[in-house]
Amino acid sequence: MQSIKLGGTASSISVGRVAVSSFIFSSWTPSPVSDQQAFEAIKAGVDALPDGVKMFLNSGEFYDNNWGTGNLKLLSRFFANYPAYAEKTFLSVKGGMSASGPDGSLEGLRRSVDNIQDELGSIKKLDLFEPARIDPKLPVETTMKNLVTLLKEGKFSHIGLSECNANMLRKAHSIYPVTAAEIENQKAVIATATELNISVLAYSPLGQGFLTGQIKSLADIPEDDMRAKYDRFKEENFNKNLAIVNRLKAIAMEKKVTAAQLCIAWVASLGPTMIPLPGSSKATRTLENLNAGDIQLTQEEKKAVEEVILVNQLRANGNSKKRRLRHYACDYVMAQAKVVRGLEVF
């Protein structure tokens, strides 16, 4: 499997060409997957990579149905059972949120980082910390200086940012090298990240399962599944969105890959520092996703994907005015054309 060097202060670290989000282990349904199933999915991904290449594993302080630390607790149990895998993973965790919103203060960030490490336990150290949102009450330079203070205290080894724009990224990087930016697709951010050698974590490249081709009807979404609340899965939008999925499946069949692999490969092709960040609760799906990092698309195939999206505008409005609208999945294509915006993934 192909690997890629991380950016910023982690430029000596090689990770798999495709990262793994642990979000799905603890969210979406009231009954998260079993530890055994989650552990097998993680182990399969790690074991598939060459020696010396780490699996990029992404989590969040609030990845849980109750916005708690359930995901971190699961990872703690994993590393307790498989301590040798601590050195084989590069763990990134989002945090820095309070009841009132993003908190980029030194006290707020310290509280978040300490909570994350307490939940992870002593076996696995936090490799990279990223504020889940940029605190609008502070200049990004101030937030960055606070992060550097915590880094120098040994709280974590590398700094990332989530949901930043190109200007924020450049300002932050001027204070201290940023290793990764987890963002919605923005052409300017990708260009800036390429220029500054910052990894771009492209979250939700499979549209929360829609673009895998496995969801064929509304009945495939259980009522207690959080995705049932999203507009893209509502009856008035579902069939229009399914038409896009079917067209992408046709392109994938010609390429002799799955629809999921096509989307992941397309996202990876957007820039030299792009790292697609899909999630999967099954070992087989994890391996399918990681194998997509080896797929090279021709210019004609890239154009075919873009044309599908542009001809069939995806219906994917937000499910709450309070939630920030964001692109998802192969909305990376639509973002370039500024056609449609989608729903945030957590």
UniProtKB/TrEMBL annotation:
<keyword id="KW-0560">Oxidoreductase</keyword>
<dbReference type="InterPro" id="IPR036812">
    <property type="entry name" value="NAD(P)_OxRdtase_dom_sf"/>
</dbReference>
<feature type="domain" description="NADP-dependent oxidoreductase">
    <location>
        <begin position="31"/>
        <end position="308"/>
    </location>
</feature>
<protein>
    <submittedName>
        <fullName>Aldo/keto reductase</fullName>
    </submittedName>
</protein>
<dbReference type="GO" id="GO:0005737">
    <property type="term" value="C:cytoplasm"/>
</dbReference>
<dbReference type="Pfam" id="PF00248">
    <property type="entry name" value="Aldo_ket_red"/>
</dbReference>
<dbReference type="GO" id="GO:0016491">
    <property type="term" value="F:oxidoreductase activity"/>
</dbReference>
<dbReference type="InterPro" id="IPR023210">
    <property type="entry name" value="NADP_OxRdtase_dom"/>
</dbReference>
<dbReference type="InterPro" id="IPR050791">
    <property type="entry name" value="Aldo-Keto_reductase"/>
</dbReference>
